[in-house]
Amino acid sequence: MTEKEKMLKGDHYNSRDPELLGMYHRARKLLQEYNTLDADLTAEREQILYSLLGQVGNGVWIETPFFCDYGENISIGANTFINTNCIFLDNNTISIGKNGLIAPYVQIYTATHPLKASERILEDENGSRYLTSTQPVTIGDNVWIGGNTVIFPGVVIGNNVTIGAGSVVTKNLPDNVLAFGNPCKIVKQL
Fold first, then answer.
1. Which pTM was predicted?
2. What gap in Å lies between CA 35 and CA 116, rounded to an integer?
3. What are the pLDDT digits (tens) for 129-178?
4. Catalytic-residue membership of 113
């Protein structure tokens, strides 16, 4: 099994694997181009997104700067708007539905590490490396995520959800709710 296959399966993997580093460097080049391109060059911006991301629906708009690890593990549904300075660490899949609104500085994480340092840090003749595993993140249709929200690995957010700014989403959220806080909690049904 390749390190990429281990990563996407959720097993511990070596993030310094040559295939993964190649994907990482490819994404960095595309992100640099995207993040420095004039905003009015919409056709060129769209082409870069199609090259960078796994799937992009019609009408997707991503403000710059935008950051991700690999890009190819991200799918975004039609008419979703992603505001400035968002970070999507797509070590596993990040699936975002259609008609989403993602505010500035939203962070979506799929990678995690063992809590105990003695289990997290591996020392060998090449120095230190860190055990990493992943879990996918799924966000439904018509979801509005407020600014500075952090979404943890493995979280599933249902359809028609509104998440208040500054939330830390550590658990799944069902359809049709307003939720916010640290940790994020359901406040009411919508």
1. 0.96
2. 37
3. 888 999 999 999 999 999 999 999 999 999 999 999 999 999 999 999 99
4. yes
